[in-house]
């Protein structure tokens, strides 16, 4: 009797985008509804994607139960569940006072270093994840049962500038590169809070002796942690819409660019663009590895990738929901000139409002439905996934407008 092939390790990579992470929930819910055998043994969460990844890793039930609970949480979320904005006058006073006094407590320092207080998000996560003293106890149980192999939550160490992947998993070794490090730990709400801490907008989070922020800031290789942890096939859900050449050539502003336009470009470049670049690199490596004899591969292996993304521009869509902004955020939006651009990308990250969030969930669900065959193939190793090189070429053609 021949030995059975090892079960393939399926990885899920959930990137950032603030409120745009609601799109991922729609995709995950569709998978839950129509792919009975769905499940991921390796989970990677970056920025807002860390919330979704942590929930799946920590939930005690089946994948279907976990996504159903996640969906309910997102459908009910409001901005007051995520952050509290001070008035513009108080913000001015706080930042002015920083130059006049060097005050004491950690809470005071938080108020001086960010535009928003994220204490509501911490409380929401502790309830949503059913934590014990901030610890995600369900992860250990799922590791022990074999349901989960590993989860990594990514943060940026503001002290050293490195990307830190906080990994919880059995028999999982860390890794070290000059600017990205894998550290074995037991995950807590602090790790998620740090990963979701948008620079300047949300306060940094102290873990040990260092301060950490959003995991997407210097993340050049978002697929790398899943590969380090042993994923054979990776599904990555991006929140970035890939424009055609014709769309890319259309101006979204008239005249001098307002601050909101520049800020939006920066947030896209920092948090969202890296996944596309990394996907192309992975496919090129796959192509090279597949041409080598097995004995010459030096431990390298092909890793199949299914990259899912929005069919609509989620940033541009946010302009339709600007009316629902809370007071102070609306004032800041006006000061930054958000109304002068037709694609307020930065605003979409903070728009944790009912109508916008639920629209993104519905879009994600419909997009997954359109990709049904590819998703089925991802979970069924006997069916053929799009070859790596074809996916890379498709990304390149869609980005450049080549036919």
Task: Describe it.
With 403 residues, the protein is α/β, with parallel strands linked by helices. It is built from 18 helices and eleven strands. It has helices at 22-34, 49-58, 63-76, 88-100, 106-113, 119-128, 137-145, 189-195, 224-228, 245-248, 259-271, 274-291, 314-318, 327-335, 345-350, 354-370, 372-379, 388-400; strands spanning 10-14, 42-46, 84-85, 116-117, 150-157, 163-169, 180-184, 205-207, 210-214, 233-237, 304-308. The strands form two sheets. Strands 1, 2, 5, 6, 7, 8, 9, 10 and 11 form a nine-stranded mixed beta sheet that branches. Helix 1 packs antiparallel against helix 3 and helix 3 (63-76) runs antiparallel to helix 16 (354-370). The longest helix has 18 residues, at 274-291. The chain is globular, with a radius of gyration of 21 Å. The model is unreliable at 104-111 and 384-392 (pLDDT under 50).
């Amino acid at each position: 009797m021949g030995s059975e092939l090892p079960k393939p390790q399926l990885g899920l990579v959930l990137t950032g985008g603030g409120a745009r992470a609601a799109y991922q929930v729609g995709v995950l819910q569709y998978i839950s509804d129509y792919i009975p055998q769905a499940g991921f043994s390796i989970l990677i969460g970056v920025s807002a994607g860390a919330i979704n990844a942590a929930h799946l890793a920590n939930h005690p039930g089946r994948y279907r139960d976990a996504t159903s609970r996640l969906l309910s949480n997102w459908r009910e979320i409001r901005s007051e569940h995520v952050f509290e904005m001070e008035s513009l006058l108080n913000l001015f006073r706080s930042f002015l006072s920083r130059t006049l006094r060097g005050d004491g407590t950690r809470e005071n320092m938080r108020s001086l270093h960010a535009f928003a207080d994220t204490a509501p998000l911490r409380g929401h996560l502790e309830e949503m994840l059913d934590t014990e003293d901030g610890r995600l106890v369900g992860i250990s149980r799922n590791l022990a049962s074999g349901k989960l192999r590993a989860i990594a939550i990514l943060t940026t160490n503001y002290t050293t500038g490195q990307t830190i992947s906080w990994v919880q998993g059995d028999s999982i070794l860390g890794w070290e590169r000059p600017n990205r490090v894998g550290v074995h730990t037991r995950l807590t709400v602090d790790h998620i809070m740090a990963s979701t801490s948008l620079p300047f907008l949300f306060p940094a989070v102290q873990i040990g002796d260092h301060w950490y922020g959003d995991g997407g800031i210097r993340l050049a290789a978002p697929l790398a942690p899943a590969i380090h942890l042993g994923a054979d096939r990776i599904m990555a859900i991006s929140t970035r819409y890939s424009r055609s050449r014709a769309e890319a050539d259309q101006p979204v502003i008239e005249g001098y660019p307002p601050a909101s336009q520049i800020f939006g470009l920066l947030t896209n470049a920092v948090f969202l663009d890296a996944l596309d670049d990394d996907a192309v690199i992975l496919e090129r490596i796959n192509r090279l590895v597949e041409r080598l004899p097995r004995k010459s591969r030096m431990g390298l292996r092909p890793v199949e990738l299914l990259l899912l993304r929005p069919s609509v521009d989620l940033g541009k869509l946010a302009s339709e929901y600007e009316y629902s902004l809370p007071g102070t955020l609306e004032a800041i939006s006006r000061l930054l000139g958000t109304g002068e651009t037709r694609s307020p990308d930065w605003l979409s990250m903070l728009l944790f409002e009912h109508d916008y969030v639920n629209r993104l969930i519905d879009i994600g669900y419909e997009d997954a439905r359109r990709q049904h065959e590819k998703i089925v193939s991802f979970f069924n190793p006997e069916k053929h996934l799009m070859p790596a090189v074809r996916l890379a070429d498709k990304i390149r053609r869609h980005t450049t407008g080549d036919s």
